[in-house]
Amino acid sequence: MKITRILTRVVHARMRNWIFVKVETDQPGLYGWGEATLEWKTKSVVGAVEDLSVLLIGQDPRRIEHLWQIMHRQYFWRGGIINYTAISGIDQALWDIKGKDLGRPVHEILGGPVRDKLRFYDHLGGGKLEDIYGTLEPAEFAERVHQSMEEGFTAVKSMPIPVSDPVESAAVLKRAAKCVEAMREAGGDELDIMLDLHARTTPAAAIQFGRLLIDYNLYWYEEPCWPESIDGLQEVARALPFPIATGERLVGRWEFRELFEKRACAIAQPDCSHCGGISEVRKIATMAEVYSIAIACHNPQGPISTAACTHVAFATPNYLIQEVVRKDVPWRKDVVIGQIPIENGHAVPPTAPGLGIDINEAEAEKHPWQPEVTMNVFRRDGSVGDW
Questions:
Q1: Would you call 356 exposed, middle or buried from its count of C-beta atoms within 10 A (0-12, 13-18, 19+)?
Q2: Can you give the pTM of this predicted structure?
Q3: Whole-angstrom Cα distance, residue 23 to residue 41?
Q4: What letter would DSSP give residue 63?
Q5: What is the pLDDT of residue 385?
Q6: Element (H or E) spanning 28, and its range?
Q7: What confidence tens digit (pLDDT) does each residue in 111-120 have?
């Protein structure tokens, strides 16, 4: 079996352009899909996939680890979010081919399921752009928590903490705390609440916020500061009683090593479409297991990424919970064939070969590339803030 062509299909989904990667083979009807979505870097990633494809045409797609090493090592320049994202999309597609060739779902060839069901967590508003980033009032947070719970979810992530100054004022701190209080009152103790700071804060400001939130028993406190500052993450982790989650901006197991060694988080969030694909997530998860750190893959992307994460989750012992976006665009389900069903906030192990999905390319063509919605962020004094 040989790879004959690698191509990309870009699908505009408002804040993101989903980058679907198709790897074709010389076996009739045998191909694989992966996802290499990276916001605001679409053309760079598409170009990187084209660069890597030169190395893979004519190779046996079933030699996944061998091909991963080729993509990682043969061009001299290693690493970087663009290169790793391109590798991720191709790697997922190779696993899809491998599963289809063997007639088995990917999680089975990763070692088989280690759990009977997988819990998913919802985004506020199901992941709709305006609801995630435009929910401001405590009553709105409460209302959207009820919406998620009505859909069967028992865990919700939100962003009540605004773009912050290096050290925050009492008014900003108390306003954010009221939003979290409203979520806890709406969901009760049965709801798990995750807060995403989007690395908008310094370690000092993250600790300020966190101390006001202690009574609300957060499931985790996500990206309290930039992951380049491992010591800063460690400082936050030691100052607060709830688990720290981070890792979506890290790529490759080498970037996770110091994070684990310094125990700067309790939950690692590698992104299966950014960090090196299914192959690399598995290695990162094994490293994390040594340190008793849980895995919860970052996944606000499209349906192929969700499928890839789901298969990894079912085969990974230290997997905690899975992120999913449902309502980013109303036609999300139209572009994919054979979705993994999520019922009452859970999924059971998929049974279809490979990743278990296909792309309806005719529907995908209806949403061609457009510039994504930009998220320009400025602090109250007009200086640039982190989105």
A1: buried
A2: 0.96
A3: 21
A4: -
A5: 83
A6: none
A7: 999 999 999 9
Tokens of 217: 């028993």
SS3 for 377?
coil
Positions marked catalytic: 198, 298
If you write DSSP's letter for every residue of 331-373 in order, what string do you get? TGGGGEES----BTTEEPPP-SSBTS-EE-HHHHTTS---PPP
Q: How far is CA 355 from CA 38, 126, 225, 351, 365, in A?
A: 20, 23, 34, 9, 22
**227's tokens:** 């992951």
What angle is formed at CA 296 by the lines to CA 79 and CA 142, rounded to 5 degrees? 125
How many Cα neighbours within 13 Å face the side chain of 268?
35
* 3-state secondary structure at position 175: helix
pLDDT surpassing 80 at residue 165: no
Q: Please give the average per-residue pLDDT across 311-337, as a whole number.
A: 96
End-to-end CA distance of the chain: 45
The DSSP element (H or E) to which 140 belongs, if any, is: helix 138-150
